[in-house]
Design brief:
- By secondary structure, the chain is α/β, with parallel strands linked by helices.
- The chain folds into two domains: 8-258, MetI-like (MetI-like fold), CATH 1.10.3720.10; 282-470, P-loop containing nucleotide triphosphate hydrolases (Rossmann fold), CATH 3.40.50.300.
- It is built from 16 helices and eight strands.
- A hairpin with a 2-residue loop joins strand 1 and strand 2 (295-306).
- The two termini are 45 Å apart.
Length: 471
Amino acid sequence: MISITRDKKNGPVGKAAAVLFWIAVWQAASMAVGQEILLASPAAVLIRLAELLTHADFWRSIGFSMIRILLGFLMGTAAGILLAGLASCVPWVRALAAPAVMTVKAIPVASFVILVLIWIPSENLSVVISFLMVFPIIYTNVLGGIESADRKLLEMAEVFHLSRMRRIRCIYIPQINPFLCSGCSVALGLCWKAGVAAEVIGIPDGSIGERLYQSKVYLNTPDLFAWTLVIIAVSLIFEKLFLTLICRAVRLLEEDSNAVWKERKCRKSPPAPPGGQSEGGFVEARHLYMSYGSNRVLEDLSVRFPEGRITCIMAPSGRGKTTLLRLLMGLEQPDSGEITGVSGRKTAAVFQEDCLCPNLSAAANACLALKRSEISTDRLIQSFREMRLEECLNRPVRSLSGGMKRRVAILRALLAHWDILFLDEPFQGLDADTRKQVLQTVRRQCAGRTVICVTHEEQDARELGAELVKL
């Protein structure tokens, strides 16, 4: 969502005063020149504009140019978004697109107009020119938004095996939205300027560009200023309208995502999925080596984690506990060594960071890894009550305290369908009373299932009834 900060010192009264000041400057300059043919006065321009408003040709010219310029804008926006999405996934597409986008941005509008006039009739010139002006801006901004997506959230989506569509809705769209709105704001103004400039050169019949050209030929300065004001007004109106529509669409998408859990009222919650463990099996790491630059984190590490049990990993800070967990989850690859027992299994995790989607409610975050029919409202409310979060169901997670966010992250992992659950310091930030309650809930819901937990507290391991592995 776009965050708009209102400047109280520059409210409507201040803006109106600034506009009146520059109109006064314009009037004074016109009076100083003393010739309307060189600089028309504001009064003359407004009188001429009022006259134009009564002519049908005036509105036809606006409609002619508006339809074509906006068509070019929409085509450029759609093409920019689609190509940016493709370029973010396919490296060779990005490599091929880079010189083309750079060339389009560098070539002057006049050169494009002359070239395009060779190939297409002048009446469609503004469509092509508007497209060429908009496309590189939207492409660059959307690609920047995709690349700035929170890597921690993307890792969470990878571990929970979120669908591509859910990743787009819950992670990418909120991240891209500010970039897209910024690009559209720039592109809308630019496409109107470039589109009308193309019409002035191509002079298609019945366009705003033709009216500007005629005003110049006949030295009709009031007409020239009046049509310029029309271009500015139409550009500003459509910029505000389009940005409002984008914000509204994103808001509706967020509301739909947040309302998903409410649609489960009449559905029975299916039984908890089987853990999928095979008694006597192991998740095993053999001879792992892992370095970050010159820093050797793991060296010839071999360790087994039994199926159907909770295992706690303990070691002093900096000994590679989190690195081992990331290797087991498949978020990183070891320099050498082998990991077995994880591939092809459903996984869930509580990370050191909460990795929650800030635009969604606590309930929507908790249900993120579930399909719409996989949990009832009653069961969800009961789960929140067990975590002492019942008052937080509909609150956006960005408004929650650190401890509340931590419990939402734990609840999301517990509600997901998993064969192996990874926990990385899951109880940090919880007060003693809440920590004890959450530990009991985790132990009860994870009984007989495979859980691998990193912790600094032996008390946590005892409360969970876990086996200890010390690195």
